[in-house]
Structure formats: C-alpha cells, structure tokens
Design a protein that fits this description.
single chain, 38% helix, 8 helices, 220 residues, globular, 9 strands, alpha/beta, two-stranded antiparallel ribbon
Length: 220
C-alpha cells in the first residue's frame, strides 16, 4: 500500500527525472557502467540460481550489462520515475520485466525469490535513516539464502546540495539528496542479516567530486 510519503517522493522523482535529465543520464551511464566491471565479476561469481531484480533500474544500462553476462537468467527492473522506465524500455528486450515501483516496497514478491538484488544511486533520495534501514530489510527478505545485494551510493555526511551537486541542477528541486556514511551502510546491512563481502570507494569527477561507495552483501 502506497504511503503519502511514497506518493510525494514519486511526484518529486517524476519532476526531477524529466525527459531532459534522463537524456543526460543516458549519456553518462553508457560510460559509467563500464566502471562496474570488477564489481559485476565479483557479484556473479558462483551466484546462486534465480532471477535478478534492479530496484532502481533507471535507464536500464546496468540490467543490459548484466543480461549480456548472464543471458539465461530472468531479470526484473523497477523505478519510481516514469521517464527512466521509458528510457530503459528502449534498450532492454521484452523478456526483462520492467514496472513502476518503489525500492522500499517489494511486497509483490515472495520471500527468498531473488538470487541478486541491485540498487545503485537511489538511496540518497530517502530523507530518513529509518527508511534506508527498512530498504535493507526488505531487500534481504526477497533474497534467497546465499543471495547477494549490490549497492552503489553517495558516501559521506550531509546534504549533497551543499556541495558540487547543486551546480548541476538548473532549478530548485524538492527531492532529497542525502549522503550516507560507510559506517551507516555497514550497520544497516548487518541489522538486516547481510554480510559485506566486497567493497570499494571512488571519487566521481562528473558529479562534483563526490565520494561513492560500492559494496556486495551476502545473505546467510
């Protein structure tokens, strides 16, 4: 059931990720996903059987890369922004099941469904720590035993709009842009029943020199 907060976030995302912004993302992601090669190699190595879901699929570039590496798997993608989903549909085959959805709510899926859950650069749009913690619990719920979670996020403390990110925005927006600290991610994963098995950090030059944190968790 959609909450008032979720409805507000969906409205904000629809405004933020307009067709113009999505077009910019398409150009960025074509190169950005190439940087994930080592991450994806670790993610897919001896991965248990089962479908994969991207809970913030955006323009679909990550799903496209994964499908090229694992063509026999079933893939799902959800995103809260309509323009992002329309972009993803232009590059992904009909066999990839794309639907509008909220990364916080995977209630349409049963427990222990997925071999892998993905979430890249979406958690900064949540306003409260408790919301992020609930995401990790929900993602763990739908993961199979020994399944894996892959997360990419802006790392640090405070509002990203106080830094270089603000210069990239043409108009003020209502959406959240929160950094979260590495120690917080570790705690959220552990509290949800996940163990971090791989991690790396990098500075993103195309986004105001913001720090990024990528990690893989395993469900016991």
């Amino acid at each position: 059931m959609e909450t008032a907060a979720a409805a507000d976030d969906a409205s904000a995302m629809a405004v933020l990720y307009s067709e113009k912004v999505v077009t910019q993302y398409e150009g960025l992601m074509a190169d950005e996903v190439k940087k994930y090669a080592a991450d994806l190699s670790a993610l897919l190595h001896d991965l248990v059987e089962g479908p994969v879901i991207d809970t913030s699929c955006g323009t679909g570039h990550l799903l496209m890369q994964l499908q090229s590496l694992e063509p026999t798997r079933t893939f799902y993608g959800i995103d809260i922004a309509p323009a992002m989903l329309e972009s993803a549909r232009t590059r992904l085959p009909d066999t990839v099941q794309l639907t509008a959805g909220d990364m916080r709510d995977l209630s349409q899926f049963e427990d222990n469904t997925f071999s892998c859950v993905l979430n890249t650069f979406a958690l900064h749009h949540l306003g409260e720590q408790v919301e992020v913690a609930e995401c990790f619990k929900e993602w763990c719920r739908v993961l199979k035993p020994n399944g894996r979670l892959y997360v990419g996020a802006w790392e640090g403390v405070g509002d990203m709009m106080d830094g270089g990110m603000a210069e990239m925005m043409e108009t003020p927006i209502r959406a959240h842009f929160n950094r979260w600290a590495q120690q917080q991610f570790t705690a959220w994963a552990s509290d949800a029943g996940l163990n971090i098995t791989y991690e790396r950090q990098a500075v993103e030059k195309d986004f105001g020199d913001e720090n990024t944190y990528f990690f893989i968790c395993s469900k016991a």
